[in-house]
Design goal:
The structure holds two protein chains of two kinds.
Chain A (H helix, E strand, L loop, with lengths): L2 H9 L18 H23 L17 H23 L18 H19 L6 H23 L3 H26 L6
Chain B lengths: L1 H13 L3 H19 L5 H11 L5 H26 L8 H12 L3 H34 L4 H18 L4 H16 L1 E2 L6 E2 L13 H19 L17 H6 L1 H16 L5 H15 L11 H25 L5 H12 L8 H4 L1 H24 L1 H4 L7 H18 L4 H19 L5 H23 L5 H5 L1 H15 L3 H18 L6
Antiparallel strand pairs in B: 1-2
Helix pairs in contact in B: 1-16, 2-4, 2-16, 3-4, 3-9, 3-14, 3-18, 4-5, 4-6, 4-13, 4-14, 4-16, 5-6, 5-13, 6-11, 6-13, 6-16, 7-8, 7-20, 7-22, 8-20, 9-18, 9-19, 11-12, 11-13, 12-13, 18-19
Classes of the chains: A mainly alpha, B mainly alpha.
C-alpha cells in the first residue's frame, strides 16, 4: 500500500464493536460494509442527480441561493462522501480478502425463517386487509389469530395441543380486535381504517 | 424571577385535581408496562399515545405523554435487572450490576435502588428544567437563520457521533433522515421534491408513522424473529426504594444527575448516553471499582440516575430551541405541534405558562413512578410473563392504528411498513435509528435556515462562520467529527497532555 493510502487508512480504522443494546445494532462484516458502502454511494449519487435536475424556478425569478435542489444536492454529496469513507475503511479491513466475509456474529438458527413467517402476516394485514372493506375488528382478529397460530405451531404440535391452540388464538384475536376498536373508536374518538 | 416562580406555582396548583393526577398516573402506568417489555421503546410508547390523545385538551395530552416517557425509562430497569435485557436502550447500563444483584438473590434490592435513583435523578432534572429553559429560550431569541442551520447540523452530527459504535454509519443515517425530510412540498416555493408525480408523497413522510416504523414495527420483527426466549429471575426480597443508600451515595446521585442533564442538553444524543456517561463517571471515582459490573450499588445508582435525569435535560432544548434532545422528545415535540403549541425560542413569548406546566407535569411523573415503585412492583412485573407470540402481534396492531390515526391516511401505514422493514435490516447491520429520526425532525429547519441565511447574506457563507454562536457551533461540530479520526484523536490527546504538563508541575508527592 502506498504511504498516502496508509495514512488515510489509519484515519478511518474505527474498531468494529458488537453492540446489541435493546435489540439495536449488530456489527457487519467488512464485506457487508463494502457492499453497503457501494449502495450508499449509488444512493447519494442518485440524490445528487435528482437535485441537479430539479427545476431552478428561473421563470419565477427566484433568488438563485434558494433553489429547491440546493440542500438535497449537498446532502447527496455528504452521503457519497461518507459512503466513500466506509468503502475505503471496509477495503482496508480486508473486505475483498477471503476472511473479509467471515461473520463475527451469525444469525441464530431459524431466525430468517421466523422473520419471513412474522413479516408475511404483517404485510397481508397492513397492505391487503386494512382499508379494503373489512371492518377493522375483523381484520385485526384475523391477523392476531393467524400470527399467534403460526408462531406457536411448533410448541403446540409438540405438546399435542393444536385444537386448544386454535381456540386460544381465536379468543385472543377476537378480544384484541374488539377491545382496540372499542377503546380507540368509542372512548378516544380516533378514526380507524 | 418572581414572575417565573409565580407561574410555576400556578402550574403546580393547576395540576392538583383529580383528572390531572389520574392522567398522570395512567400515563406513567402505561409507560412502565411498555418499558418493562424488552425492546419496546419510549419513542413507540409516546407515538402510540400521541394518536390516542389526539382529541384531548393539549395540557392533558402532553401530561400523559410526559408521564409515559418517564414511566417507560423507569420501567425499562425491571427487565434489565430480572432478564438481563434492557427494557429500553437507556437501561443497558443497568444490566450488568442490576442483573448481578438479581442473581445473588437481591433482585428486590436492585429494583429498590433503581426506583430511588430514578426518583432522585428525575427530580434533579426537573429543577434544571425549571431553571434553565426560560434562560435558554431568552438566549435563543437572538438566534437567526445562521445559528439554526448550525444547531440542526450540530444535532444530527452529534447524534451520529455518539449513538452507536460506528460514527460513519451514524452520520449516514443522519444524512438519510435529512434527505427523507426533503421529500414532499418544500417550505419556500411549494415545489414538490422527490415525489415522482405521486400525490401522496407531496405531504412528505410524516414523523409519527416513520417513528412507529423505525422503533415499533422494526422492534416487533426483531423480537419475534429471535427464537430464544430469556428466563426471568425470581424475586424474593423487598422492593421498597432504598433512600438510606441514596444518602450513602449522594455524591453519585448529584454527579450522575448533572451528567444526565448535560448529555440531555446535547441534541439527539439519547438517554442511553446519559446512563453510560454517568456510569463511567461513577466508576472513575469509585472506591469500589472492582465491583462495577458485578453488582455494584454505586454503578446501578449512577446508571439509573443518569438516564432519568437526562429526560428533563432532553426536554430543555426541545422547548427552548425547538430541537429535540432525543427520539422520544422528538415525538413529544411533534405532539406539542399537533396540539397547537410550537416549541422554540418564541415559546416564552407565545406560551410562557406552558414551560412551567411542563415542569409541573414532569414533577407529577416523578411522583407517579415513586408511587408505582412503592406499591406496584410485583403486579406490574406480570407483564414480563406474557408470551412474546401473544403480545407482539397486538403491539403491531397498535402500531398500525397509531400510524393511521394521526392523518387518517392508509399511505402512512404503508410508509410505516416500509420504514420498519428497512430499519430492521439496517439495525442488523449496525445502523442506529436515532440519527435518522433526528435528521427527519431537523431536515426542514436545516433546509429553510440555509436558504434563508444565503438570501440574507447574498450568497456569502461568511456569516455562517463568523457570527459568535455560529463559530462556536461550527467548531464543535467539525471538532466532534474530526475526533473520530484516530490520528486526529491521538494528536489532540498528545497536545492536551503537553498543555497539562505546562500548567501542572508533575505528579503530586
Amino acid at each position: 500500500m502506498r504511504p498516502a493510502a496508509e495514512l488515510i487508512v489509519s484515519f478511518f480504522q474505527v474498531p468494529i464493536v458488537h453492540s446489541d443494546s435493546a435489540g439495536e445494532g449488530r456489527a457487519a462484516t467488512p464485506r457487508a460494509d463494502f457492499i453497503a458502502a457501494l449502495v450508499w454511494i449509488v444512493f447519494g449519487a442518485a440524490v445528487l442527480i435528482g437535485s441537479w435536475r430539479m427545476d431552478r424556478l428561473e421563470s419565477q425569478d427566484i433568488n438563485p441561493y434558494t433553489i429547491p435542489g440546493l440542500v438535497p444536492g449537498l446532502l447527496g454529496i455528504a452521503v457519497v462522501f461518507f459512503g466513500l469513507l466506509m468503502l475505503f475503511r471496509a477495503w482496508s479491513q480486508g473486505a475483498l480478502t477471503p476472511a473479509g466475509g467471515a461473520d463475527g456474529r451469525e444469525a441464530k438458527p431459524g431466525e430468517h425463517r421466523r422473520f419471513a413467517l412474522v413479516l408475511l402476516p404483517c404485510l397481508i394485514f397492513g397492505v391487503g386487509l386494512l382499508g379494503h372493506g373489512l371492518p377493522f375488528w375483523a381484520a385485526a382478529a384475523l391477523y392476531v389469530t393467524s400470527t399467534i397460530l403460526i408462531l406457536q405451531y411448533p410448541e403446540r404440535k409438540a405438546a399435542g395441543q393444536l385444537a386448544r391452540g386454535v381456540v386460544a388464538a381465536t379468543v385472543i384475536g377476537l378480544c384484541a380486535g374488539g377491545l382496540i376498536t372499542l377503546v380507540f373508536q368509542e372512548f378516544f374518538l380516533v378514526r380507524l381504517p | 424571577m418572581l414572575e417565573g416562580l409565580s407561574m410555576l406555582g400556578h402550574s403546580y396548583l393547576s395540576f392538583l385535581n383529580f383528572w390531572s393526577i389520574a392522567y398522570g398516573l395512567g400515563g406513567a402506568f402505561l409507560g412502565i408496562l411498555v418499558g418493562c417489555m424488552p425492546g419496546l421503546s419510549a419513542t413507540l410508547c409516546i407515538a402510540l399515545l400521541t394518536t390516542l390523545t389526539l382529541k384531548m385538551e393539549a395540557n392533558n395530552a402532553i401530561l400523559i405523554l410526559i408521564c409515559s416517557y418517564v414511566g417507560t425509562l423507569y420501567g425499562g430497569s425491571r427487565s434489565a435487572i430480572l432478564l438481563n435485557i434492557p427494557g429500553t436502550a437507556a437501561n443497558a447500563a443497568s444490566c450488568a450490576d442490576g442483573h448481578a444483584l438479581a442473581l445473588r438473590g437481591e433482585a428486590g434490592r436492585a429494583i429498590g435502588i433503581a426506583t430511588s435513583g430514578a426518583f432522585c435523578g428525575t427530580l434533579f432534572g426537573v429543577l434544571c428544567l425549571a431553571a434553565f429553559t426560560p434562560a435558554l429560550a431568552e438566549v435563543a431569541l437572538k438566534f437567526g437563520a445562521y445559528e439554526f442551520f448550525w444547531l440542526a447540523l450540530f444535532g444530527v452530527a452529534m447524534s451520529g457521533s455518539i449513538v452507536g459504535d460506528d460514527p460513519i454509519k451514524g452520520w449516514l443515517m443522519g444524512a438519510l433522515g435529512l434527505i427523507f425530510a426533503q421529500i414532499g412540498e418544500e417550505g419556500l416555493y411549494a415545489y414538490n421534491r422527490f415525489t415522482f408525480g405521486w400525490d401522496q408523497l407531496s405531504g412528505g413522510i410524516s414523523l409519527i408513522p416513520a417513528l412507529i416504523g423505525a422503533f415499533g414495527f422494526a422492534e416487533v420483527l426483531t423480537i419475534l424473529s429471535d427464537p430464544i426466549e430469556k428466563k426471568l429471575v425470581e424475586m424474593k426480597d423487598s422492593t421498597l426504594p432504598r433512600f438510606r443508600e441514596v444518602a450513602q451515595y449522594w455524591k453519585t446521585v448529584l454527579r450522575s444527575g448533572a451528567i444526565g442533564v448535560l448529555t440531555g442538553l446535547l441534541p439527539g444524543v439519547g438517554e442511553d448516553a446519559g446512563a453510560w456517561m454517568s456510569y463511567a463517571g461513577a466508576r472513575a471515582v469509585s472506591k469500589e471499582k472492582e465491583l462495577f459490573g458485578k453488582g455494584s450499588i454505586d454503578g446501578l445508582m449512577a446508571a439509573e440516575t443518569g438516564d432519568m435525569s437526562s429526560i428533563p435535560g432532553h426536554i430543555i432544548p426541545c422547548l427552548a430551541l425547538g430541537i429535540p434532545g432525543s427520539a422520544p422528545s422528538a415525538v413529544l415535540m411533534a405532539a406539542m405541534i399537533i396540539h397547537g403549541i410550537q416549541p422554540g425560542p418564541m415559546m416564552m413569548i407565545a406560551h410562557p405558562q406552558f414551560v412551567y406546566d411542563v415542569v409541573a407535569m414532569t414533577t407529577l411523573a416523578t411522583c407517579s413512578i415513586l408511587l408505582f415503585g412503592l406499591f406496584m412492583v410485583r403486579p406490574l412485573l406480570l407483564v414480563l410473563r406474557i408470551k412474546r407470540s401473544v403480545l407482539m402481534p397486538i403491539i403491531f396492531l397498535l402500531a398500525s392504528v397509531g400510524a393511521y390515526a394521526s392523518a387518517s391516511r392508509l399511505f402512512d401505514v404503508y410508509a410505516m411498513l416500509v420504514i420498519g422493514v428497512g430499519a430492521y435490516f439496517l439495525r442488523k447491520k449496525g445502523y442506529q435509528m436515532a440519527p435518522f429520526v433526528l435528521g427527519l425532525v431537523l431536515g426542514h429547519l436545516l433546509d429553510k435556515s440555509l436558504r434563508r441565511g444565503l438570501v440574507l447574506s447574498d450568497g456569502s457563507v461568511l456569516p455562517f462562520l463568523t457570527r459568535p454562536i455560529c463559530a462556536v457551533l461550527a467548531l464543535v461540530t467539525v471538532f466532534t467529527m474530526l475526533m473520530y479520526i484516530p490520528a486526529v484523536n491521538r494528536g489532540v490527546k498528545a497536545a492536551f497532555g503537553w498543555c497539562k504538563g505546562l500548567v501542572f508541575s508533575g505528579k503530586a508527592a
